[in-house]
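Form P-L/3: holo structure prediction, ligand guanine.
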Amino acid sequence: MAKLIDGKVISAAVKNEVATEVAALKEKGVTPGLAVIIVGEDPASKVYVANKEKACEQLGMASFKYALPENTTENELLELINKLNNDSSVNGILCQLPLPRHLNEELIINSIIPEKDVDAFHPQNVGKIMIGNYDFLPCTPAGIMEMLKYENIEIEGKECVVIGRSNIVGKPMSMLLLHKNGTVTVCHSRTKNLKDVCRRADILVAAVGRANFVTADMVKPGAVVIDVGINRLENGKLCGDVNFAEVEPVASYITPVPGGVGPMTIATLMKNTLTAAKKQNNI
Ligand code: GUN
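OUTPUT (holo model):
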């Protein structure tokens, strides 16, 4: 039976630390502020954005929400971002992805100044992560690293397999594991013998976006299994990328969905907003 890595408990600990620092900053007259932009009506995105707002409120930060209609033009969105870039009460700017198809995601991401890019999606911040000398942690991967640290799970010298090569999770995740001296393999849709590669993993990170993708035969007995997926089933229930019922008896540690990686992403976002506020105010 695997030990459950509880993202709610660990994120609460991180958020507590952030809240203490926010209170100290406020004494100096600085209230960290996060602007969240959402375009369109994607139901999952709406939930994520609401959770981000709620976290700001819990931690004493200011949150500014911009819910724009689906037919927002690129220029309108760029204008808003430009305004926020120049607003000193806004320390972090996040544009919820995915954007509607008529908007150029890369252009929009690149228009957020790196100093306020609390997602760490701007090429300058991505480059810094690659080098290992970064201001902002990529939210989901950093949240996962925090979970591993909390559980005293060693990374050095371990076989780490990341399934998925997205810019948001897979690629930065592989970098953070590499910085901690893991031996990292990144798998994707063209990987041959995926099952065999996954079975090598001491630490297996699933960021595929397909419900129940990782089955028991893909997991080495005693492996640490991290499930990044948030998939909604036809019956409305949330489900990860890992077949939890099958894999849990094989793994040594496993993250649940919901209540695993998701809350950690938000905790890191709060940390990044605090970092941004401190840097922008030379604190
Ligand atoms: N969509 C899914 N995850 C994320 C995230 O971490 N940041 C943003 N901006 N959009 C997302």
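COMMENT: Residues 94-97, 119, 139-140, 168, 265 surround guanine (CB under 6 Å).
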